[in-house]
Amino acid sequence: MRKSLFVFIATLAMMMQSCAQTPEQPTTATVVQQPTMPAEHLTLTDFTDVAAASIDGVVHIKTEMTQMTPLYQSFFGFIIPQGVQKQVYNAYGSGVIITTDGYILTNNHVVQDAERITVTLNDRREMPARLVGNDPATDLAVIKIEAEGLTYIPFGNSDLVKVGEPVLAIGNPFNLTSTVTSGIISAKARNMHIIDNPRSNETPLESFLQTDAAVNSGNSGGALVNSQAELIGIVTAIASGNGNYIGYSFAIPSNIAVKVAADLQRYGYVQRGYLGLQVTEVDANVAKQTGARAIKGLYVAKVVKDCASDRAGIRQGDIILRVAGKEVNTFAEMMEELGLFSPGDEVEVDYERDGHTNTVKATLLNSQGNTQIIRK
After folding, report:
1. Is the separation of the CB atoms in 225 and 56 below 8 Å?
2. Closest by alpha carbon to 278, among 296, 301, 299, 312?
3. Is the pLDDT of residue 311 over 90?
């Protein structure tokens, strides 16, 4: 699928949601329960060791879907409909084992609309998989195979990733299984506007890690790991004019992925919390027009009535500086930070108003304006 110069491998939205009047009982955030890794797995520095420790945790995914195509027959120059025929299509991608009992994290676009999913492990075992849940807003999905004692890749903290840090990308480009490439982190919090098919009431959540590790068609859903053999990203897209790798690729940060995976495992649906804001990134022009003290933060263009930010006292014209203690200077950074929380969670927000910094606590709401669990 191609959009502008950005191509999904394998096959500034505004953060504004309608709100109801009264919140229900808050929920607690969930985390994927991964087994405890032995201490020696946390001290790997040689990339040969990193590859050896990680490669069995990446799988090859084959999907099958049926499409009905019309049949036509030419008769004396006229095209006459002759019914339809079934055509079976296959697509390929990658996935990352995240638990010893067979939960696998991949991209939504790898398994979306699949009628049959087949997973091949690095040891060549092949087995069917079922879809546990998918999240188009982040382009993530969780599938499950019936197996035990599998090698998995532990989650790392993507907030600690630094630009220039070396990484490995592991996947199955062009159906070449167990392929490892190396590179560095080129940038963080990239919003590429490439997720264009979320559910109608959801905002795309894009805050990609950018890397120059070579990836191609089939790498989607594969692992981006650091020098400690930790999963710091799920490879998702490339920058390309022809569908092939030309220098940059993008991965979903692990801190977003772990929250999405946990919610999909527990509820089949991601529990996403919203502030209820429209924001504009503060640049030199915005700072001059608004009188901001510095060129940083997010200018609040609109506050949705009776949403989380409105109830917390945030107003149009304020400049959001930090969310949950983390500086936010881009829309992507704010989306990434909020993506770690669930409806009902209380989040500290620092903002500037009339030259003064203020701090409030906002209780996040879901897209329906309350804190109830939304199920698939």
Report:
1. no
2. 301
3. yes
- Percent of the chain clearing pLDDT 90 (strictly above): 68
Which residues in the chain are classed under CATH 2.40.10.120?
A: 2-19+34-62+93-267
Catalytic residues: 109, 139, 220
In b/e form, how buried is each residue of 161-186, taking b as 16+ CB within 10 angstroms? beeeeebbbbbbbeeebebbbebebb
Most confidently predicted of 26-35, 65-74, 144-153, 268-277: 144-153
Q: Which residue has the higher pLDDT, 210 or 200?
A: 210
pLDDT, tens digit, 9 for 90 and up, residues 207-259: 999 999 999 989 999 999 999 999 999 999 887 777 777 888 999 999 999 99
User: How would DSSP label each residue in 276-335?
Assistant: -EEEEE--HHHHHHHT-SSS-SEEEEEE-TTSHHHHHT--TT-EEEEETTEE--SHHHHH
- Alpha-carbon distance 376 to 374, whole Å? 7
**Burial tier of 67 (Cβ tally within 10 Å: 0-12, 13-18, 19+):** exposed
Q: Which CATH number fits domain 2-19+34-62+93-267: 2.40.10.120, 3.30.43.10, 3.20.19.10, 3.40.50.300?
A: 2.40.10.120
Other residues' Cβ atoms within 10 Å of the Cβ of residue 357: 12
Distance from first CA to last CA of the chain, Å, rounded? 26
CA torsion sign for 98, 59, 238, 277 is negative
At residue 121, the 3 state secondary structure works out as coil
CATH class of 277-363: mainly beta
Give the C-alpha separation, 273 to 26, whole Å. 11
Query: For the chain, what is the mean pLDDT?
Result: 86
User: Which residue in the block uniquely carries the two structure tokens 């991209």?
Assistant: 107
Contact between 187 and 181 under an 8 Å Cβ cutoff? The reply is no
Specify the domain boundaries for CATH 2.30.42.10 within the chain.
277-363
Res 80 pLDDT > 70: no
pTM, entire model: 0.82
- The C-alpha atoms of residue 284 and residue 297 are separated, in whole angstroms, by 12
